[in-house]
Amino acid sequence: MYQFIKYIVLFFAVSLSLISCKQKQGDKIKVGFSQAMTTDDWRKQMNSSIKIEASLRPEVDLTIKDANNNVTKQIEDIERFISNKVDVIIVSPIQSKPLTAVVEKSIKAGIPVLVVDRKIEGENYTAYLGADNIEIGRIGARYIISHSKGSGKIVEITGAAGSSPAYERTLGFNQVINENKHFSIVKTIQGDWEKESVKSPLKAILQQNPDIEYIFAHNDRMALSAWETAKTLGLENKIKFIGVDALNSVNGGIELVKSGVLDGTILYPTGGNEALKLALKIYNKESVSKNNILNTIVIDKNNAEIIENQMDKVDQQQLVIESQQGAIKVQEKEYASQNNLVRLLSFFLVIILSLTIYSIYSTISISRKKKQLERINQTVIDQNNEIQEMASLAAKSNEAKLGFFTGLSHEFKTPITLIMSYVESLIENEKIKGTTLIDEVKLIHKNSNRLLRLINQLLDFRKIEEQKFTLRASNTKIYDFTNDVMANFKGEAARRNIDFQLISKNKNLELFIDRSLMDKVYFNLLSNAFKFTPDNGKITISIIESLDNTVKIHFKDSGIGIPENEQSNVFSPFFKASNNNKNSSGIGLHLSKEFVLLHKGNIELKSKQGTEFVLTLLKGNEHLGHSEIVQKGENLNNIQSFVTDTIDLESELNELHTVADSEKHSLLIIEDNSDLVTFLKAKLSNEYIVNISDGSDAIEKALEIIPDIIICDINLVDKDGYEISKELKKDLRSSHIPIIILTAQSNKESVLKGLQSGVDQYLTKPFSLSILRQSISSLLFNREKLRYYYTNNIYRVEPESKFGNQEQNFITKMNSIIVLNVENPKFSVEELADKLGVSRVQLYRKVKAIIGINISDHINNVKLEKAAELLKSNEMNISEIAYSLGFSSPNYFSTAFKNKFGISPKEYKASN
């Protein structure tokens, strides 16, 4: 009887538990997903990742509606989600404009909307998640520029009109291509994301332009169609094809790269699991960014197999997860079925007992499977982290390039400031005052100042991109400030008879502005006004107070104006109007807008008769943060800012002067003109260790010091420059040294003879010192690139035919000698030098110059490679291998091995 009562109590407990579970299911978070992706592969990948993420979150009730590329159906699906009062809606728009209204309706109904993959018009949505399509376009363009070796002609195949990815990818692609004058987009084909939209127009283009080097398509399907079209014309091996998507499927981007159809494809992640995570954050009212960008990378033959393996592993793990989820659902159904039997047969003690035991068993089984599922899920997360780390490395590489750009711009400022300093000294020199030369010197100073401003604009652009500007606003009389800036242009106005006026009813009006930044805004607007206003024209600045606590500053000119269809682009970086035939960097107006926005203001354009820019600034300082407001004296004016730049440059120059000789490249100047030698030594000794020869001992001196670069004249006392260059290039000890010919002989025959003698650069006198410096820098940079090739391919260097120089033969011969003697413990550097026919010192210098490490370390690396092979063969123990390869002890061998391979010989042997 006691047992019976016990079972009855257990029955009611189970019943209450089931009721509680049902109540919890009723409290689930309802998430509606409107899917609009057009291809099966994308749909499968997106749906799979979001379903798996939902399966790991029991509190989520996910509903997926597939619109099958039908805009009307997608709107109906979203309307249904709104009427069902779901908690969050995730939308992947087919097109931007048609879905804007229904998304706004959802927002008004209090249902947050997460837009993925493609944006709608306007900003009336909760958050956006997707890849940065503008950056995808830039990545495609940078890949083409960095790998191009041909004509530089490009055909772009865009996506469907009205699609935001198509517009943004084209925008990013054109931004980068237009920066490089060696590349041009010959034609743009308006595709519709499908293959058939490409073939006919592309065939006509290729028939007219058979020298097309690259085709960039907005997805891999159109890229494949482009390849098939080129194949019909026999051009598939002459043209390189770049796509977007990188799907891991049959005829997907990764397979096309591996098969050689595509040269590269840009990963376009769907972000299904990230979308659900972000939707839950929105539901939980956590702080989320308006725009959430997914990482991407370029996939080519170098990494296609790695990415494919990673994606295969993820797919396998997803299949396992789905299988496990199916098993869990089966178990849950069985569990529910058994509980129903318990209810129906609760009075039969034996059946209740058996069902109870079975329920316990089922619970244990489900628990085990859930733990197994958690382990599998952790594996998927780890692999996903690896992919994200790879994307992060690609981002760091891009950041390094941008850093190089900024550093180079800084380097430009030093010589420009020095030029200006010397020119200013000349202007103050009493000997040239009052002469015609003073006007020419002032012209040099004016253009140097202009160049310095352009470089400062480049640096400002970089700072704006990285959001590194901090506003330092102080209370300023805007009339006086405007008048001070206008003073810089009044001379130009008088010279060209331009009516230049300032109009203001309140000369004591004060605004909080950052004078340094606002000076740049004024300067850019006035420079453009004077540039495009004809002589006898009119330029007016009007300061007008508004009733809405704002001040409007109008810059109006009587110039050529801007075409109406281009006015929306004037504030875009690097934009240049079609009627603008003046020299322009294209970033001045972009920087001006960004500086005004920092002031919480606005700038707009009006252009009907002439051009008018209107700045709108707020009165008072309530709109500014506490850290953005400074006292009047702290806000540096234009002149003080320039002085600061100069001080920084002097600091850089001092650092340049104090560089240790050990860190400088060595330079040999072969020249018999003592004045020219003195000049070059004075100008180059700060950057290089300068050695001198009059030509009589040029070859002996070059072989003695093995310099990093040589500057050589042609007409010398003993041998001419051609003979010296030819002998040095033929000699194995000096063949790697770049040679610059610096001569007065500028005829075609002399240049051709110099190049035939093996020189790397031919410059004629009179020469530009800046061009000479840049030539030295470029040749040393190219030598570093060649060193990088040898360092990273040290055991796979190909025969001389590939590059046509002796370094490859030298490396190949040296490696073969080392390999033959790798098991000879008595083999030494001296013996290697003897076999190569060079001295020990020359061998050290030659190897150090080519591969960047000393010869002892190189021999050691070859021995360790041999050790790895012996460990794999498992024929000798670790001590035997160590002594056979000439290591002093097994411990030293183990330490060297671990330093190179990251694991000990014992671990390496066990892993193989």
From TrEMBL:
Q: Which reaction does it catalyse?
A: ATP + protein L-histidine = ADP + protein N-phospho-L-histidine
Quote the SMART domains the UniProt record gives. Answer: HATPase_c, HisKA, HTH_ARAC, REC
InterPro entries per UniProt? CheY-like_superfamily (IPR011006), HATPase_C_sf (IPR036890), HATPase_dom (IPR003594), His_kinase_dom (IPR005467), HisK_dim/P_dom (IPR003661), HisK_dim/P_sf (IPR036097), Homeodomain-like_sf (IPR009057), HTH_AraC (IPR018060)
Annotated TM spans: 341-361
Residue ranges of the Histidine kinase domain? 407-621
Q: Where is the Response regulatory domain?
A: 666-780
Asked if the Swiss-Prot or TrEMBL record annotates the protein with the keyword Metal-binding, the reply is no
Every HTH araC/xylS-type domain range: 812-911
EC number assigned by the record: 2.7.13.3
Asked if the Swiss-Prot or TrEMBL record annotates the protein with the keyword Transmembrane helix, the reply is yes
Sorted UniProt keywords: DNA-binding, Membrane, Phosphoprotein, Transcription, Transcription regulation, Transmembrane, Transmembrane helix
Q: Which SUPFAM superfamilies match?
A: ATPase domain of HSP90 chaperone/DNA topoisomerase II/histidine kinase, CheY-like, Homeodomain-like, Homodimeric domain of signal transducing histidine kinase, Periplasmic binding protein-like I
Annotated coiled-coil segments of the chain? none
Q: For the modification 4-aspartylphosphate, which residues carry it? A: 713
Which GO terms label this protein's molecular function in UniProt? DNA-binding transcription factor activity; phosphorelay sensor kinase activity; sequence-specific DNA binding
Protein's name in the database: histidine kinase
Top-down, what is the taxonomic lineage of the species of origin?
Bacteria, Pseudomonadati, Bacteroidota, Flavobacteriia, Flavobacteriales
